[in-house]
User: Which sequence fits this backbone?
């Protein structure tokens, strides 16, 4: 497990294996009588960005909250580095290296930017490396450096999203879990956030699981994708393949070319689809 945001080179014994870092099997989570996710299986390999796409209510947040220990699954398993995680409390899951950036950011509004970032360090394995990680977060998000003494509640939505990601990075995660980072942001800010996500992944090798409704940007950024519909995985594969699937083109990319969607020159055309 990493102790700071320096590049995470896998140790030689891990290079040989093809074991996923995070392995989810037949996960089922209920709210009272309602099953929100119904038998979800997913793998995340070290160094990969995996995206989970799906419409509102598909079960994306429930999946991330179950992985992070916020909700206990009714059935199924979550293994991280070969160890079971399901049933552990969220603070223990974070200490082991899975750190969640929740939907809607949830920064501490009355604390400053710098104080919010320091709060993120509670789940670190070691205090060592904290100052250099802070510098690194400010290098990825220069706007946070400019606003370090401002109350977080006064930041724009995009800046709060950057702060929420920065705070999670201060825990020095092995896997970063991002719940709809584009929610409520302009296309321009969404692209900026995803460019930084890509940089964090390529510069540190950190593994990232990002849940999104914005299929175009997520499929352009991630290596592997899963599409959820009504609590189940409806399709999965390398993003390059998913982008070419007719269903995905028609219902997630709206028939517009992937490039036009990513550069923002065309909007997607929305239509509902139930996968069979
Ligand atoms: N706290 C809750 N209590 C009851 N039902 C919930 C709760 N949270 C989510 N749900 C239901 O679970 C399903 C999945 O929701 P969610 O995981 O939030 O989906 P998504 O993040 O993909 O929009 C939806 O049908 C939603 O209404
Ligand atoms: Mg959600």
Assistant:
């Amino acid at each position: 497990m990493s102790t700071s945001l320096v590049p995470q080179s896998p140790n030689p014994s891990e290079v040989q294996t093809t074991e996923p870092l995070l392995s989810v099997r037949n996960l089922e989570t209920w709210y009272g009588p309602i099953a929100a996710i119904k038998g979800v299986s997913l793998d995340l390999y070290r160094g990969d960005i995996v995206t989970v796409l799906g419409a509102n209510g598909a079960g994306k947040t429930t999946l991330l909250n179950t992985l992070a220990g916020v909700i206990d699954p009714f059935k199924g398993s979550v293994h991280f580095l070969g160890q079971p995680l399901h049933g552990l409390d969220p603070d223990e899951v974070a200490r082991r290296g899975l750190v969640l950036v929740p939907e809607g950011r949830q920064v501490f509004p009355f604390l400053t930017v710098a104080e919010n970032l320091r709060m993120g360090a509670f789940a670190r394995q070691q205090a060592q490396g904290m100052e250099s990680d802070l510098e690194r977060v400010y290098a990825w998000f220069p706007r946070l450096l400019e606003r370090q003494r401002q109350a977080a509640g006064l930041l724009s939505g995009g800046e709060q999203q950057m702060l929420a990601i920065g705070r999670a990075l201060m825990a020095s995660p092995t896997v970063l879990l991002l719940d709809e980072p584009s929610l409520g942001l302009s296309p321009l800010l969404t692209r900026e956030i995803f460019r930084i996500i890509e940089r964090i992944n390529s510069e540190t090798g950190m593994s990232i699981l990002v849940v999104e409704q914005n299929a175009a940007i997520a499929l352009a950024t991630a290596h592997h994708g899963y599409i959820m519909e009504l609590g189940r995985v409806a399709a999965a594969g390398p993003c390059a393949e998913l982008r070419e699937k007719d269903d995905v083109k028609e219902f997630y990319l709206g028939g517009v070319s992937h490039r036009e969607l990513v550069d923002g020159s065309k909007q997607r055309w929305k239509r509902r689809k139930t996968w069979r």
Observations:
- The longest strand covers residues 34-44.
